[in-house]
Amino acid sequence: MVLVKDGLVESAIATAALLMISSPGYAIARPRSDRGLSADVATDAVPTLKPGSSGQPVADVQQTLLAAGFYNGEVDGQYGIESQQAVGEFQSYFGLPRDGIVGIATWQALIYSSSGLPIN
Length: 120
Description:
The chain is an alpha+beta fold. It is built from four helices and four strands, in the order ββαββααα. Strand 3 (26-31) and strand 4 form a beta hairpin. Helix 1 crosses helix 4 (104-113). It is globular and about 30 Å long.
């Protein structure tokens, strides 16, 4: 899924924010088989990420954790042990249960941390 606001594509983390917080002017666009975008109403939930997950959502999480100082590995879109440990440390910092899995509460904290607001 891709988030579109006024015709501009946003990140997967912003897409997760939209799924959790409704906001006027935004629409979910899902890729169609012809590689175009469709402004369908999203029925998919934000992805739960755990060891073995891969793809752009994982890379987005890795980049966010890297920027916040929790991850020092390669941003490669592969959810391995390093990503799991970084997510666990991030969860502990935000007072979330430390399980190393990116579910709804962790997505919300990641969105907050990437908003530019101080996390200390």
